Amino acid sequence: MPEIRIGDIAIQAMAGDNLLDTLLAAGQRVPWSCRAGHCQTCLVQTLDGAVPINAVKGLNPEQRESGWVLACQCPVLENMHIKLHDPARDGLGAKLVSTHQATENTLIVRIKPDRPLRFKPGQHMVIWLDEALGRPYSIASLPDEAELTFHLKLHRFGAFSDKIQSLKPEDRIYLGAPGGHFHYDPDWQDKPLLLLAAGTGLAPLQAIARQAFALNHHAPIQLYHWHDKHGCYLEGALRDLAENHPDLTLHLRPGTELAADLTQLRLASRSTLALVCGPPAFVEQVRKPLFMAGLPGRQIIDEAFLSRQT
Ligand SMILES: Cc1cc2nc3c(=O)[nH]c(=O)nc-3n(C[C@H](O)[C@H](O)[C@H](O)COP(=O)(O)OP(=O)(O)OC[C@H]3O[C@@H](n4cnc5c(N)ncnc54)[C@H](O)[C@@H]3O)c2cc1C
Ligand code: FES
User: Fold this and answer.
1) Domains and CATH numbers, the chain
2) Less Cβ around it within 10 Å: N or C end of the chain?
3) Distance 73 CA to ligand 2 centre (A)
4) Which cofactors are reported in the record for this sequence (predicted)?
């Protein structure tokens, strides 16, 4: 029976038990969000012993070398000695610059990290509002911009959604490491891009479009945004972008038209790449019509905004 040691505490597990479940069942306050190995909210640090490869998927080399694992993806196979994540010690300090309510349920958040961060626009990171409350959000800004920007959908009764609205400029928060596969690749310069977003799934996709132009992308980009009854929260900025970049075509559409719009999707060429982002049900709904329009699965790159209950 393997044992998990955290300081003076010893927790018994059955071989193969999930590490996150075991820690939670033993009363340890381990944060989590997606439970799918995607968001890095459930990091714990192993101080000795081997770790299963699945538990470090998506972590950067420094995180791996320091023994970090994703607890939600880690089976307990042998005795483990671990340390719980503390955002104030293990994360990057930052201050809240501003929050702006763009629509009734969309908040634009600007954050200034204590030191510059390396990231690719469209990647995501965990924002920690205190030692236990962290959620993953996609980076909507470019690296040369003064602040990090995020677009948050506000969820009724959402713990993060509630607390962020009570914070003031200059309040201290903490950031996890940027990561994830969802970003512009300079090898795509000649490929038409089809960017498909619902809700705040627009955050990474507008950043990817802006990064593409910054890197001299020279094939057409079509950006679809399906929005709720409050409209596209970024319409002005997107129209300005399209005015400066004739290769960009905008389709700002009510969400009620999504199913009909998907039947009309046409690919500019067989080398088109589709990037899809938004709630999990949206990402799922879009895959099949793209495939039917002739796009192989490997040319569809997606990011589903998994939450604690999806
Ligand atoms: C890689 C990644 C990147 C993400 N990027 C963004 C982003 O840029 N912008 C953004 O707005 N969100 C993003 N999300 C989703 C975001 O992390 C969650 O929606 C967030 O956890 C909500 O936190 P909360 O504390 O307000 O709600 P919670 O307290 O976690 O949940 C409260 C209630 O709200 C419901 N809820 C929460 N989130 C959702 C959701 N997405 N859809 C439907 N119901 C939900 C829950 O089911 C629950 O009933 C991302 C998720 C992932 C995995
Ligand atoms: S990666 Fe483990 S909860 Fe998201």
Assistant:
1) 3-85 (3.10.20.30), 91-175 (2.40.30.10), 186-304 (3.40.50.80)
2) N
3) 8
4) [2Fe-2S] cluster
